[in-house]
Fold this protein.
Amino acid sequence: MPASMTRSASTVQTAGRLLFSRFLFYLFTTGAIVVLTAPAFAHDAEPTAAMPQGWSYPLACCASYDCRTANTGEVLEKPEGYVIAGTGEVVPMTDKRVKDSPDGEFHWCARQAGLDAGKTICLFVPPRSY
């Protein structure tokens, strides 16, 4: 076999490997971009009589597990604000974390882990009765 044919076959193999490695790089990069830019969704509140279809907690309040309907007596309305019974945290009524509840129920969004575990992110409150 002539030397020129051996070199050209070697060149073709090297070029093929280069193209394949570039293809893998672009495939990986494209996949990473798709995963990292996928839309983020908030999770939904449980359906209630007032909202049989449920509703979605805002993304700013939760990370798909931070929010839930508060049990009776878990959030108390006091003169100083809303008191979270389990933690003793007081959330003033004028605090920006206090939101109107779409279904008339208390919903509590709190950090689930770390040093801030149990700290309120958002508190959805029903309309006040006079």
User: Anything to note?
Assistant: The helical segments are 3-36. The chain has two domains: 1-38, 44-125. Residues 104 and 126 are 4 Å apart (CA to CA). The two ends are 99 Å apart (CA to CA).
